[in-house]
Design goal:
Layout (H helix, E strand, L loop, with lengths): L4 H16 L2 H4 L7 H11 L4 H22 L8 H27 L12 E5 L2 E5 L7 H9 L3 H26 L8 H27 L9
Antiparallel strand pairs: 1-2
Helix pairs in contact: 4-5, 4-7, 6-7, 7-8
Length: about 220
Protein backbone atom coordinates (compact mmCIF):
# COMPACT_ATOMS: atom_id res chain seq x y z
CA UNK A 1 0.00 0.00 0.00
CA UNK A 2 1.37 3.40 -1.01
CA UNK A 3 1.38 6.25 1.49
CA UNK A 4 2.00 9.75 0.20
CA UNK A 5 4.88 11.76 1.62
CA UNK A 6 2.53 14.61 2.45
CA UNK A 7 0.40 12.29 4.59
CA UNK A 8 3.48 11.01 6.44
CA UNK A 9 4.64 14.57 7.03
CA UNK A 10 1.22 15.55 8.39
CA UNK A 11 1.15 12.55 10.74
CA UNK A 12 4.66 13.32 11.98
CA UNK A 13 3.79 16.97 12.57
CA UNK A 14 0.72 16.04 14.59
CA UNK A 15 2.78 13.64 16.67
CA UNK A 16 5.35 16.32 17.42
CA UNK A 17 2.60 18.77 18.41
CA UNK A 18 1.10 16.18 20.77
CA UNK A 19 4.47 15.63 22.45
CA UNK A 20 5.35 19.30 22.70
CA UNK A 21 2.04 20.57 24.07
CA UNK A 22 0.88 19.53 27.55
CA UNK A 23 -1.99 17.04 27.53
CA UNK A 24 -4.45 19.37 29.29
CA UNK A 25 -3.95 21.95 26.53
CA UNK A 26 -4.37 19.47 23.68
CA UNK A 27 -7.49 17.74 24.97
CA UNK A 28 -10.67 19.52 24.07
CA UNK A 29 -12.56 17.42 26.62
CA UNK A 30 -10.64 18.67 29.67
CA UNK A 31 -9.50 22.28 29.14
CA UNK A 32 -8.05 24.13 32.12
CA UNK A 33 -10.78 26.09 33.81
CA UNK A 34 -10.41 29.67 34.89
CA UNK A 35 -10.38 28.53 38.53
CA UNK A 36 -7.54 26.08 37.89
CA UNK A 37 -5.53 28.71 36.04
CA UNK A 38 -6.02 31.22 38.86
CA UNK A 39 -4.94 28.57 41.34
CA UNK A 40 -1.72 27.88 39.42
CA UNK A 41 -1.04 31.59 39.06
CA UNK A 42 -1.48 32.03 42.81
CA UNK A 43 1.02 29.26 43.57
CA UNK A 44 3.66 31.15 41.59
CA UNK A 45 3.25 34.25 43.73
CA UNK A 46 5.61 34.70 46.70
CA UNK A 47 4.51 33.72 50.19
CA UNK A 48 6.19 33.94 53.58
CA UNK A 49 6.48 31.74 56.65
CA UNK A 50 3.93 34.06 58.27
CA UNK A 51 1.43 33.09 55.56
CA UNK A 52 2.03 29.39 56.20
CA UNK A 53 1.73 29.87 59.97
CA UNK A 54 -1.49 31.84 59.57
CA UNK A 55 -3.17 29.30 57.29
CA UNK A 56 -1.95 26.35 59.39
CA UNK A 57 -3.03 27.85 62.70
CA UNK A 58 -6.40 29.03 61.44
CA UNK A 59 -7.37 25.45 60.53
CA UNK A 60 -7.48 24.39 64.18
CA UNK A 61 -9.02 27.71 65.15
CA UNK A 62 -11.87 27.18 62.69
CA UNK A 63 -12.22 23.52 63.71
CA UNK A 64 -12.96 24.52 67.30
CA UNK A 65 -15.58 27.03 66.16
CA UNK A 66 -17.24 24.34 64.04
CA UNK A 67 -17.33 21.98 67.04
CA UNK A 68 -18.83 24.66 69.27
CA UNK A 69 -21.47 25.51 66.67
CA UNK A 70 -22.29 21.83 66.22
CA UNK A 71 -23.51 21.58 69.81
CA UNK A 72 -26.32 24.11 69.33
CA UNK A 73 -29.13 21.69 68.32
CA UNK A 74 -28.40 19.11 71.03
CA UNK A 75 -27.83 21.66 73.80
CA UNK A 76 -31.18 23.45 73.59
CA UNK A 77 -29.94 26.61 71.90
CA UNK A 78 -32.52 29.15 70.80
CA UNK A 79 -33.77 29.02 67.23
CA UNK A 80 -31.92 32.19 66.28
CA UNK A 81 -28.66 30.88 67.68
CA UNK A 82 -29.11 27.53 65.93
CA UNK A 83 -29.51 29.35 62.61
CA UNK A 84 -26.38 31.38 63.30
CA UNK A 85 -24.42 28.29 64.34
CA UNK A 86 -25.47 26.50 61.16
CA UNK A 87 -24.03 29.32 59.09
CA UNK A 88 -20.81 29.35 61.12
CA UNK A 89 -20.33 25.60 60.73
CA UNK A 90 -20.97 25.65 56.98
CA UNK A 91 -18.80 28.69 56.21
CA UNK A 92 -15.86 27.71 58.38
CA UNK A 93 -15.86 24.10 57.20
CA UNK A 94 -15.55 25.38 53.62
CA UNK A 95 -12.73 27.72 54.67
CA UNK A 96 -10.88 24.83 56.34
CA UNK A 97 -10.91 23.09 52.94
CA UNK A 98 -9.56 26.24 51.28
CA UNK A 99 -6.69 26.54 53.77
CA UNK A 100 -5.77 22.86 53.53
CA UNK A 101 -5.74 23.06 49.72
CA UNK A 102 -3.56 26.20 49.84
CA UNK A 103 -0.98 24.42 51.98
CA UNK A 104 -1.10 21.22 49.92
CA UNK A 105 -0.58 23.15 46.67
CA UNK A 106 2.61 24.59 48.13
CA UNK A 107 3.93 21.24 49.43
CA UNK A 108 3.52 22.32 53.04
CA UNK A 109 2.38 20.09 55.94
CA UNK A 110 -1.42 20.06 56.09
CA UNK A 111 -2.76 20.03 59.67
CA UNK A 112 -5.89 18.05 60.42
CA UNK A 113 -8.97 20.02 61.43
CA UNK A 114 -8.65 19.37 65.17
CA UNK A 115 -10.65 21.40 67.69
CA UNK A 116 -7.76 21.16 70.17
CA UNK A 117 -5.50 23.25 67.95
CA UNK A 118 -2.49 22.54 65.75
CA UNK A 119 -0.85 19.21 66.49
CA UNK A 120 2.91 19.32 67.10
CA UNK A 121 5.39 16.63 68.11
CA UNK A 122 7.97 17.56 70.73
CA UNK A 123 10.29 15.08 72.40
CA UNK A 124 8.32 12.15 71.05
CA UNK A 125 5.07 13.50 72.48
CA UNK A 126 2.11 14.97 70.63
CA UNK A 127 1.03 18.40 71.81
CA UNK A 128 -1.57 20.87 70.59
CA UNK A 129 -0.74 24.53 70.13
CA UNK A 130 -3.73 26.77 70.73
CA UNK A 131 -4.23 29.88 68.66
CA UNK A 132 -5.33 33.26 70.11
CA UNK A 133 -8.89 33.24 71.41
CA UNK A 134 -9.31 29.48 71.42
CA UNK A 135 -11.16 27.98 74.37
CA UNK A 136 -9.32 25.97 76.99
CA UNK A 137 -10.37 22.40 77.78
CA UNK A 138 -12.15 23.72 80.88
CA UNK A 139 -14.09 26.31 78.88
CA UNK A 140 -15.09 23.73 76.27
CA UNK A 141 -16.28 21.40 79.03
CA UNK A 142 -18.28 24.22 80.62
CA UNK A 143 -19.95 25.03 77.30
CA UNK A 144 -20.69 21.37 76.65
CA UNK A 145 -22.41 21.02 80.02
CA UNK A 146 -24.65 24.08 79.51
CA UNK A 147 -28.22 23.86 78.22
CA UNK A 148 -30.89 26.26 76.99
CA UNK A 149 -30.42 29.95 77.72
CA UNK A 150 -27.22 29.24 79.63
CA UNK A 151 -25.77 27.59 76.51
CA UNK A 152 -26.73 30.64 74.45
CA UNK A 153 -25.04 32.91 76.96
CA UNK A 154 -21.81 30.93 77.20
CA UNK A 155 -21.65 30.27 73.47
CA UNK A 156 -21.97 33.95 72.60
CA UNK A 157 -19.46 34.98 75.28
CA UNK A 158 -16.92 32.38 74.18
CA UNK A 159 -17.42 32.86 70.44
CA UNK A 160 -16.82 36.60 70.84
CA UNK A 161 -13.55 35.66 72.55
CA UNK A 162 -12.85 33.23 69.71
CA UNK A 163 -13.51 35.78 66.98
CA UNK A 164 -11.33 38.40 68.68
CA UNK A 165 -8.52 35.88 68.63
CA UNK A 166 -8.95 35.40 64.88
CA UNK A 167 -8.71 39.17 64.39
CA UNK A 168 -5.49 39.14 66.43
CA UNK A 169 -4.12 36.48 64.08
CA UNK A 170 -4.91 38.67 61.07
CA UNK A 171 -3.25 41.65 62.76
CA UNK A 172 -0.13 39.57 63.39
CA UNK A 173 -0.07 38.44 59.76
CA UNK A 174 -0.43 41.98 58.42
CA UNK A 175 2.27 43.28 60.77
CA UNK A 176 4.82 40.90 59.23
CA UNK A 177 6.81 42.52 56.40
CA UNK A 178 6.10 40.92 53.04
CA UNK A 179 3.26 38.72 54.34
CA UNK A 180 -0.30 38.53 52.93
CA UNK A 181 0.90 39.30 49.39
CA UNK A 182 -0.43 35.98 48.11
CA UNK A 183 -3.84 36.64 46.57
CA UNK A 184 -5.67 33.87 48.43
CA UNK A 185 -4.12 34.72 51.81
CA UNK A 186 -4.79 38.42 51.27
CA UNK A 187 -8.46 37.94 50.40
CA UNK A 188 -9.11 35.27 53.03
CA UNK A 189 -7.47 37.21 55.86
CA UNK A 190 -9.37 40.37 54.91
CA UNK A 191 -12.63 38.40 54.85
CA UNK A 192 -11.87 36.93 58.29
CA UNK A 193 -11.23 40.40 59.70
CA UNK A 194 -14.33 41.98 58.17
CA UNK A 195 -16.75 39.10 58.74
CA UNK A 196 -15.72 38.31 62.29
CA UNK A 197 -15.68 41.98 63.32
CA UNK A 198 -19.27 42.24 62.08
CA UNK A 199 -20.25 39.01 63.82
CA UNK A 200 -18.78 40.19 67.13
CA UNK A 201 -21.14 43.18 67.05
CA UNK A 202 -24.07 40.94 66.17
CA UNK A 203 -23.28 38.40 68.91
CA UNK A 204 -22.90 41.18 71.49
CA UNK A 205 -26.40 42.39 70.61
CA UNK A 206 -27.74 38.83 70.96
CA UNK A 207 -25.96 38.49 74.30
CA UNK A 208 -27.34 41.79 75.59
CA UNK A 209 -30.87 40.69 74.63
CA UNK A 210 -30.75 37.54 76.79
CA UNK A 211 -32.47 37.58 80.20
CA UNK A 212 -30.11 38.09 83.13
CA UNK A 213 -28.61 34.87 84.50
CA UNK A 214 -30.50 33.22 87.32
CA UNK A 215 -28.68 33.57 90.62
CA UNK A 216 -27.93 30.30 92.31
CA UNK A 217 -29.32 29.86 95.79
CA UNK A 218 -26.71 29.57 98.55
Amino acid sequence: MKVSLSRVALTTSLALITIAVPRHLVSAQSPMSGVEQARLDSIRRPYKKADIDFMSGMIGHHAQAVKMAGWAPSHGASKSLQIYCGRVAMAQTAEIGLMQAWLKDRNQPVPAADARGMKMSMGGRDMFMMMPGMLTDAQMAQLDSARGVEFDRLFLKYMIQHHRGAITMVDTLNATPGAAQDEIVFKFSNDVYADQSTEIDRMQQMLDALPPPTKKRP
